[in-house]
Amino acid sequence: MSLTLTERILGGSAGEYVDRRVDRAYVHDGTGVLTLEAFRSMGVQAGMNPEQISVLFDHICPANTGLTADLQRELRQYTRSAGMQFSDCGGGICHQIMSEGRILPGEVVVGADSHSCTGGAFGAFATGVGATDMAAIWASGETWFRVPETIGITLEGRLSGAAEAKDLALSVVSRLGMEGATYCALEYRGEGAATLSMEDRLCICNMGVETGAKNAIFSADLVCREYLGSYGHSIDLQIPSDCSYHREVTIDLDEIVPLVAPPHRVDSGKPVGDLAGTEVDQVLLGTCTNGRYSDLKRFADIVRGRQVKVRTIVVPASRDVLLQATRDGIFTDLVAAGCTVVSPGCGPCLGMHNGVLGDSEVCLSTANRNFKNRMGVGGLIYLASPSTAAATALAGCITDPEVQV
Question: Fewest Cβ atoms closer than 10 Å to its Cβ: which of 9, 17, 61, 71?
Answer without folding.
Answer: 17
